[in-house]
Specification:
heterodimer; A: mainly alpha; Cyclin A, domain 1; B: alpha+beta; Phosphorylase Kinase, domain 1; Transferase(Phosphotransferase), domain 1; five-stranded antiparallel sheet; 13 helices
């Protein structure tokens, strides 16, 4: 077994367009959604594990690199996200136990996908299998990386660039936030860290309308390229235009869960140790009970009634999206049209955070309160000036248009599944939430 | 023997490319085995396979193994051990690192001279070993890598063959990139085996530099000259406290008490203040490095060694500066084959190869009564950060293998590292290598901004 040496890990647009997932029939929008979803898991789990931000940054870069080499259809996004944050904690010298990682991912899954919030028995077969899967996936990641896992982040360049350019202090936090959000995209495997750093500096400067030197061009001093910088801005603007990323089961060997919800129907035999298909065989799907039929058996064409239902759900989705838009997005979105063919499809991080915060507040648990404080700080940092409100309204309009255009291209199957999943998820959340309250009261 | 035991068990697929010979060492991380390559392109080439056990609580691949592999995969130098391959055993989740095998290490060479030859190592060999060690270390430091566990058993020397007598720095389990560490290096805990530990480490320095490696080189240099460790202190392992009174006592007896005048940053070291009554309670009136070494204070060797053992890490000589020292410019000049002297008058020493335990199978269980285990040059650091093994001081029974091997000129079919600059590095045996000229092309990131060897410009960070 000879590993290919990887000196640098950067891909061309063509290579990204022909990713392993694409070859497995996963379309670009789905891959983008799963990339964002995986990065959301890494970020949230890192917070729960009390890891420094550098660990989550490294984990997200490893996550993107891995799925440039392997398909989402063969490696479950939840497993890879868990192993990436675990591996990153080792690389960045803040190691966490497998037990801690599994407990956190189990808990996040129950909340995100509205499974019953059960206790994970550390002596059950389920737990032992999860631990084995975590280790196996870690080895796959190391193997695909050729054991070269050094990651350089744009953050380390931002402060120096801004100091050299003598910009106002508020640009620093804005650029830093943009760099964090850029990790949810594939910018880290397309451009060197210096280019991404220049891109977020540029985007922050435009946001605050701070002029930067054009003659000579400021980016020349920082190893940046104008085309790369512009692309960074486009990708980030597109990221903020996307709805919250939801889990989409695409694995060929059936779905995977950290919780026991699916283990009831799982076969008793031990899953085979197949390197390429590490997911255990599983006849259950993640669609909540009551769903009419399985998502993957849904026909693409369908009857007129089904089409109408999908359209109605799209409207509902748009309405809920409008209600949740409380965050400002990038100013340059108005100045430059979004080229979807180039930009990656990525979800809006801050909107997700906002929604999560509301949900967590309803539960009122202490840990949630701590997390709320963290998110409150983040929100305070992100708060714009009053003049941004007008811009927000205009951008909301533009987002509606983009949403309509974006969703019309989605396949009916994906739309239907997504809508049904969302609706049932909401219903389940309400009922389980009351159950959680009872449990909390008993404690 | 290896073949017979191998055929009795089903071997993992990756293992079938090797003929297993036997166990050559062990440590806290696992075992080291000697093997030979079967394939026609490299038939008979010796490989050392270092096994990393999975930790008992099942926390996946050990961070030490990942770190060692990451570093070794990115560096290529004639005087640094070559990682040939990495194997993952899916059955027990073990990790195996395959290295080019080196028959000798400085520990065994020194011990052989002390116990068998009963005569000091000749000047040519000492100088060549030291030069090559510094050459490899300069490469590491130029790429912002601190080794942090330099000691004789980690300095390998190649046996008969194409690279006969070439020095290889081994065991990167404690090594770190220190260009921009996210945390202070001191958070890794206690590093460097105690006899080779620099005084700033013993006094609890929060920030330290590659100078800790140069102190260790100084201790190794002295040991090559005198055949015994220079500062042989007893380590107290009860607490993770970096302060080791006995080790400091051994240092002060030879070099004298450090003073604020000569080492201004001494006052900032935590244990200089906390344990000052212990430290200053002793008197060191008769301290003398030259009497311990039996070298003239005017000799270049003494001058170089005293600069390596400078208390103040900022004044301590660097690897780049040491390579330019007068000691390496006087006769005999150092050569690529450190073991075969080029002077006709020098005694040629036939060093024994490392003993091999052929009774232990690959899983580590013994088929018969095992002979006393010995450590290979790569056998040191454990899985825990800061974990290390004290150097051996007990003589071991000598088991000389009578096997003869014929060297092969063969392609490096399994070499994962780049071959860039490899040809330029080749040097006929016995001819001194050019000093100050980079032996290898750097392969690491351009952002380092330090192409080749920075002879004089490199400044050390505090």
């Amino acid at each position: 077994m000879i590993y290919t040496a990887i000196d640098t890990f950067y891909l061309t647009d063509e290579q990204l367009a022909n990713s392993p997932s694409r070859k497995d029939g996963i379309d670009e929008a789905t891959e983008t959604t799963l990339r964002i979803y995986g990065c959301d898991l890494i970020q949230e789990s890192g917070i729960l594990l009390r890891l420094p931000q550098a660990v989550m940054a490294t984990g997200q870069v490893l996550f993107h690199r891995f799925y440039c080499k392997k398909s989402f259809a063969r490696f479950n996004v939840k497993k890879v996200a868990a192993s990436c944050v675990w591996l990153a904690s080792k690389l960045e010298e803040n190691p966490r136990k497998a037990r801690q990682v599994i407990i956190v991912f189990h808990r996040m899954e129950c909340r995100r996908e509205s499974f019953p919030m059960e206790h994970l028995d550390l002596y059950s077969k389920k737990y032992v299998d999860l631990k084995m899967e975590l280790s196996r996936t870690e080895r796959h990641i190391l193997k695909e990386m050729g054991f070269i896992c050094h990651v350089e982040h744009p953050h380390k360049f931002i402060s120096n660039y801004l100091a050299t350019l003598e910009t106002p202090p508020e640009l620093r936090q804005e650029a830093w936030n943009l760099a964090n959000d850029s990790l949810r995209t594939t910018l880290c495997v397309r451009f060197k860290s210096e280019v991404v750093a220049c891109g977020v500096v540029y985007a922050a400067a435009r946001r605050f309308q701070v002029p930067l030197p054009e003659n000579p061009p400021w980016w020349k001093a920082f190893d940046g390229e104008k085309s790369g910088i512009d692309e960074v801005g486009r990708v980030l603007a597109h990221l903020y235009s996307l709805p919250k990323a939801q889990y989409i089961p695409v694995c060929k060997d059936g779905d995977f869960t950290f919780s026991n919800k699916s283990s009831e129907t799982k076969s008793q035999s031990t899953p085979k140790d197949v390197p390429q298909n590490s997911s255990p065989a599983d006849t259950d799907n993640s669609v909540p009970k009551g769903a009419q039929g399985e998502a993957n058996t849904e026909s693409n064409g369908g009857k007129g009634a089904m089409v109408n239902v999908a359209i109605d759900k799209l409207k509902d989705s748009k309405r809920s999206d409008d209600e949740s838009k409380g965050m400002s997005t990038e100013g340059e979105a108005r100045d430059e049209p979004i080229l979807k063919s180039k930009a990656d499809h990525i979800g809006e991080t801050r909107r997700n955070r906002d929604r999560d915060r509301d949900r967590e507040r309803d539960r009122g648990r202490e840990r949630d309160r701590d997390r709320d404080r963290d998110r409150t700080k983040s929100r305070d940092r992100d708060r714009g000036r009053d003049s941004d409100k007008e811009r927000e309204r205009e951008e909301a309009e533009r987002d509606k248009l983009k949403d309509r255009g974006h969703r019309s291209r989605e396949r009916a199957k994906d739309s239907g599944h997504s809508e049904k999943s969302k609706r049932h998820s909401s219903h389940d959340r309400v009922s389980y939430s009351s159950r959680e309250k009872d449990r909390h009261r008993h404690h | 023997m290896g073949d017979d035991s191998g055929s009795n068990r089903s071997k993992p697929e990756w293992l079938q490319q090797y003929d297993l010979i036997g166990k050559i060492g062990e440590g806290t991380y696992g075992l080291v085995f000697l093997a030979r390559i079967k394939s026609s392109t490299n038939r008979g080439k010796s490989i050392a396979i270092k096994k990393f056990k999975q930790s008992k609580d099942g926390d996946g691949v050990s961070p030490t193994a990942i770190r060692e592999i990451m570093l070794l995969r990115e560096i290529t130098h004639e005087n640094v051990v070559k990682l040939v391959n990495v194997h993952i055993n899916h059955m027990d989740m073990s990790l195996y690192l395959a290295f080019d095998y080196a028959e000798h290490d400085l520990f065994e060479i020194i011990r052989h001279h002390r116990d068998k030859v009963n005569q000091s190592i000749n000047q040519y060999t000492v100088k060549s070993l030291l030069w090559q060690l510094l050459n490899g270390l300069n490469y590491l430091h130029s790429n912002w890598i601190i080794h942090r566990d330099l000691k004789p058993s980690n300095i390998l020397v190649m046996g008969e063959g194409e690279e006969h007598g070439v020095v290889k720095i081994a065991d990167f389990g404690l090594a770190r990139i220190y260009q921009a560490p996210l945390k202070p290096l001191s958070e890794n805990g206690v590093v460097v085996t105690i006899w080779y530990r620099a005084p700033e480490l013993l006094l609890g320095a929060k920030h330290y530099t590659s100078a800790v490696d140069m102190w260790a080189v100084g201790c190794i240099f002295a040991e090559l000259l005198t055949l015994k460790p220079l500062f042989q202190g007893a380590e107290v392992k009860a607490t993770p406290n970096p302060f080791q009174l006995d080790q400091l006592d051994k240092i002060f007896k030879v070099l004298g008490h450090p003073t604020l005048e000569k080492w201004p940053s001494l006052a900032n070291l935590p244990h200089w203040q906390q344990d000052s009554q212990h430290i200053q309670g002793h008197k060191y009136d008769n301290a003398s490095l030259c009497s311990v070494l039996q070298l003239s204070p005017k000799s270049p060797a003494y001058d170089l060694l005293s600069k390596m053992l400078e208390y103040d890490p900022r004044k301590r000589i660097t690897a780049a500066q040491a390579l330019e020292h007068e000691y390496f410019k006087i006769e005999p000049l150092p050569g690529r084959n450190a073991l075969v002297p080029c002077q006709p008058g020098d005694t040629f020493v036939n060093y024994p190869t490392r003993p091999v335990d052929t009774t232990t199978d690959f899983e580590g269980t013994a088929n018969m009564q095992p002979s006393q285990p010995v450590s290979s040059g790569a056998a040191v650091s454990g899985n825990m950060p800061g974990g290390h093994v004290s150097n051996r001081s007990v003589p071991r029974p000598m088991n000389v293998g009578g096997m003869q091997r014929i060297p092969h000129q063969a392609m490096q079919g399994y070499n994962l590292s780049s071959q860039a600059g490899m040809g330029a590095g080749m040097n006929p045996g016995g001819i001194p290598m050019q000093r100050g000229v980079p032996q290898q092309q750097l392969r690491r990131k351009d952002q380092m901004g330090m192409p080749g060897y920075p002879p004089q410009q490199k400044s050390r960070r505090i």
